[in-house]
Amino acid sequence: MRVLVALIGGCAWMFLAGSAFGEEAQADYLQATAKDMAWWRDARFGLFVHWGPVSLVGTEISWSRGGPRPGWGRDSQATGPIPVEVYDNLYKQFRPYAFNADQWVAMAKAAGMKYIVFTTKHHDGFCMFDSALTDYKITNSPLGRDVVAELAEACHKHGLRLGFYYSPPDWHHPDCCGEHHERYVEYMHGQLRELCTNYGKVDIIWFDGLGSTAEMCRSEEMLKMIRELQPHVLINNRAGLPGDFSTPEQHVGAFSNTRPWESCITIATQWAWKPNDRTKSLSECIRTLVGCAGGDGNLLFNVGPMYTGAIEPLQVERLEEMGAWLRKYGKTVYGTRGGPYMPTLWCASTHKGRNLYLHVFEWDGDRFELPPIDAKVRSARLLTGGCVDVAQTDEGITVVVAPEHQDAIDTIVALRLDRPADELKPCPAAPSLAYGKPVTTSNVHKDQPEYAGAKAVDGDNHSRWATDGGTHQAWLEVDLEKPTTFNRVVIDESCGSRIQSFQLQRKAGEEWETFFTGTTVGAKWHQRFEPVTAQHVRLNILEATEGPTIWEFQLFNTMK
To answer: How far is CA 69 from CA 11, 206, 243, in A?
Structure first.
């Protein structure tokens, strides 16, 4: 278990990574029951909303506020671009005349979302609900209405599950993480009591503790109170305790069918509204959702409403498109479990009963090769339209779909098995020849194992091989363990285009022989070439603007 500790003004905030807390059995109030978790695991898709007076200036919520950030380790004295005296008084001008909770809920339901998590108080300390414990709240703005009350009423009326985001760190409260921190903890517990008492049934409490310790939040006491007031509530892992689910941020989480998880990801680039922000394409949105489901997790997809209270029209349009897709193919997402093929850059899979749903994002020609599974394929259908041929041998499964029948976003193949898919052991779906093979490199960032060369061939596009800052030349060598023929390479450099010049080389005796020379790479770069046979293959980076970082380096034989 890894423990990160930051000491700020006598206050320690700490994040405990892992699926268990300590060695002793947990009290009942520290964890939801499997029955209470069931609806959430079936839902797969929820709406996250970051909103507040900061939308008046279009900068990031909390992080754009000037002044110290108690409870945030290395950046505790950092400052944002908006002076404190300006940021903290934005609410006096906040009049979101277009806010309509019923419209928000209708939009979420049209998108196929099953629950909503709303920011009741972010790190900036401003309360979007009518708390009796502070004057720094929405009911003292020109709007003069309790936004949380209206949203709770709309969710209950229209059958959308309701969640409240709440930040334990508070950069506005004078006692947070200071000499009188216990007074702040009483304030925090009091506000959570208000949220769990005044707004009807609450389904989720979503802390964002920035590494809060259970001790500094008095989290066991806090969770006990919350579950006494809301017996069936789900609680995340950001208040110093494991809670009921983990929360990878801004990326699709790694496959896990034992520990529940939910990726929180923005539909644009900023959590709060930003003018002219880039909205993700429909393809990116669908593949993100399917990637989460395929990893056996949920997607909490964030929008940032504008200062008017309305949601950016392009974001609404994108969510409506996702809803239309889910109305066609939702059975491959809702109520499913991830696997047995673990997600890669190219595909994901979900299952329910004896139905295995294969989601193929990227094709090379007309076929897709999968490793063998301990089940017989009885039938196959192409849910996205057209014909599919499936051949199963002891060596694996070959799926063939003509290019004209391949969906540009997600080609979905439904396989009917002779046994329930949840009886199958999860396995990688990567048909790459380099997958899991031994790797050596010229350099690893600070010699840290999480950046080792093996991360570039693990089939997980959220782990990476990274080199030290300032590195301009580097190499990565893969041992295919026997002479192997391949004619296609995929290199994923998702951080941008640091590589400016590179070679692909094979070892011939004691010498390296170059068989391909390229320039820039970028995300999901791929290239075919004349067939090459080699045991040792090297990516030789000749020039990079900064330390090269490779998410995936994979080799394929497309001639089968």
So the answer is: 12, 20, 25
